[in-house]
Amino acid sequence: MTEMKRRTFLGIAGGATATLSTLGGTLGGTIAGTLGFPSLVLGAVRRVVVVGGGVGGCTAAKYLRKLDPSLNVTLIEPEADYTSCFMSNEVLSGERTLQSLTFGYDGLRGYGVDVVQDWVVGIDPDTRQVTTKSGNRFDYDACVVSPGVGFKWGAIAGYNEEIANESIPHAWFAGPQTQLLRNQLTSMPEGGHVIIVAPPNPFKCPPGPYERASQIAMYCQHHKPKAKITILDAKDAFSKQGLYIEGWTKLYGYGTDNSMIQWISAAAGGAVEELDPQTRTLIGLVEEFQGDVVNIIPPQKAGEIAFAADLVDGDWCPVDKLTFESSRHPGIYVLGDASSASKMPKSAYAANSQAKVAAAAIIARFQDKEPGDPTFVNTCYSVVGEDFGISVAAVYSLDSDTNTIEPIPGSGGVSPANASPEIRKREVSYAHSWFKNVINDMME
Amino acid sequence: MKNYKNTPKHLRNLLLAALVALPATGAAGPSGQAMAFTCAGCHGTDGSSVGPSMPAIAGMDPEVFVDAMTAYREDKRNPSIMNRIAKAYSDEQLKDMGWFFASQRLQVFPQDYDAALAEQGAQLHDEYCEKCHENGGRPGDAGTLAGQWMPYLHFTMEDFIDGKRKWPRKMKRKVDAAIDEAGDEAIPALLNYYASQSDIDAEEPNHD
To answer: What ipTM was estimated for this complex?
Structure first.
C-alpha cells in the first residue's frame, strides 16, 4: 500500500503537467513557448482524418476522441454501414444472416466523430490534405489510413473482378458476394463438389479459408451429406492446422475415404494457376479440379488508397511500429491489414490493438511527448463445427532495435489439443461473445 | 443498503482515476492503460463486456483482478484463452492493469432472466453469499456478480462444482448449504438474481 500511495502521488504530480499541456493552447504563445509546448502556440484544434471505416479506422477514431475530446476527427468511408467480414463464414452455414453482421456508424458519431460517406482518392503528405472522389478536401494534422486489403487480380489467369461479382465469388469482403456464395451452396445438387482456393501468405484472416471450409461442411452435413469440399492451397501449412484437422477428423471424417473435407497443399498440387470460369475448372500444376461451387480467395496486397498515396513498399505499407507512422510519409499512420506489422497477423483484433497504439502516439506527438511503449494483443476464434470452437492468442511487445512486433515468450498459442467437448463448446460461445465485444469496442 | 460510499474510498477512487489517466512516470514498458486497452476486444471498452460469455471487469477490485490473472497464469483455472494471455504479464503489469480497471465505472446491460428464480436467488444470496459478495455482489472484495452475464456465471459455477477451479475460503460450504436448501434450483436462482441487477450503472466502484 505504501508503494501505491507513492505512485499515486507521482501520478498526481505528473497530472499537473498534463493539465497544463491541455490548457496550453489558451495560455498564449509566450507562456506556452516558455513551458516548452511550442506546437501549441497557435492553440488551433488538431484535425485527424481517418481513411477507412473498418476495424482499424473505427477503433482509431473512437479512441482518438476518447483520449482527447478536443480533437477534430473525421472518418471517411465509402459504405453507409459497416459489414463485418469476421463471423461472415457463419452466413455460409446458415447460422447467421448478413444483416447480423451489419452496423451503422452512429455509435462513432456519438463519440463526436464526423463520419463522411465518400471515397478517398488522394492524400498529399506535403500540404497535409485528403482528397475524395466527390471533390472534397480535408486538411489534417495527422492522417490514419486503414483501408484493409485489395486483390492481386491476374495472379490466377481467367479470374477477375467481374467473374467474382457474378459467378465465382471471393466473398473475402462480407456483402453481396457472401450471399451469392451462400445461395450457390443451397442450390448446389446433393453430392456436389465445393472448391475453395486459399491464398498464399500474407493475407487477411489467416485461419479464414479453413473456417470457411468447416462452416460449409457444417451446412452440408445437415443438408447435403454426400457433398465434398476441397481446399486447394497455395501453401504447405496453415493457421491452427493441428486443431482444424482434429476438428475435421472428429466432425467430418477427415483422413478417411469418406471425408467431407479434403485439403491439398501446394506441394501436393494444390496451387492453381488458371481458372476456366465457364466450366468452373481450376488448373493446377499437376491436375485439374472441377467444382459445382468455386470460391477463389485471391492473393492480397494493401488496399487501393495505399498505392495511390505512395505508402507501399511492395505489396504492403512499412511503418514505424512504435507509432504506426508510415516510414514513407510523416504524419500518415497506416494500420490494420494494409500495414506491414509482422509478426502480428492481419486480423480484426490486431487492427483493433494497433489502432489504440497509433491513437495514443498521435496524441503524444500533438503534445510534444514521446509515445509510450506499445503493447499489442491478438485473439482469434474459429468455429469448426457445432459446439467445436478453437482459438489462438498472442501478446506482443515491440523490439525497437529491429522494428519487429514480437510475441512475448512463454505466452500465447492455440487451444489445447484434444480438449474436452465442454471446452470446445465454450470456445464457440467465447467466439460469439468476442464478436460482440470487438464490434462494441470499435464503434459502439 | 449499507453506506459503503465513505469518504476515504471516494478519495482513493479519485486519486486512482487521476493516476490511471496518465502514462506511467519513469517506468519502463507499456502503461496500465495501454495494456488494459488491449483487453477491450474481449471484455468491452474499459472492461464493460457486452459478450455474454465474457465477464465485465470494470470496477473490479485490483486485488481480485491480480488474483484471477495470477491463477490463469499458473493454469489453476479451467483452460481458456486467458491462461495463454496471462502468461505475458509480470506481477507489476498485472497490478497496473488492475488499477486501471478498478477505476472504470461498471456499465451493466439488461439481460433476460426469470423473475421468480431471481426472487428466490435474492434470498439465497442474502443468506449464503452476501457476507463475501457484499451489496448484492457489486464490485468489492470478492468477484463481481451483480449484473454479470449469466452464461459467464454459469461457466464459473460449473468449474467450481466440477473441481476445475479451487473454491475460495468458505465458498464450498456456503454453496453446498444453498443447494441443501433449494436443491437443483439453487444455482439457477442465484444466477438469475445476479443477472436481474441491471440498475447498478450509477454506483461508484467499491474497492475496500
So the answer is: 0.89
User: Which chain A residues touch B19 with a CB distance below 8 Å?
Assistant: 7-8, 11-12
Angle at A218 between CA A217 and CA A221, to 5 degrees: 80
Question: By C-alpha distance, which of B161, B143, B123 is closest to B60?
Answer: B143
Reading the block at residue B154, the C-alpha cell is 454459469
Q: What tens digit of pLDDT does each residue of A56-94 get?
A: 999 999 999 999 999 999 999 999 999 999 999 999 999
Spatial separation of the C-alpha atoms in residues A127 and A332, rounded to whole Å: 12
Bridge partners of residue A383, in order along the sequence: A389
| Option in B16, B28, B38 nearest A376 (CB) | B38
Q: Work out the minimum CA distance from A414 to partner chain B, whole angstroms.
A: 8
The grid cell for A279 is 466450366
Q: Which of residues 89-118 of B touch A (CB under 8 A)?
A: 89, 99
Please report, to the nearest 10 degrees, the dihedral formed by the alpha carbons of residues B26, B27, B30, B34 taken in order: -70
pTM over 0.95: no
Side-chain-side CA neighbours of A128 within 13 Å: the count stands at 14
Number of alpha carbons in the 13 Å side-chain half-sphere of residue B52: 13
CB A333 within 8 A of CB A319: yes
B25 closest CA partner among A12, A358, A366: A12
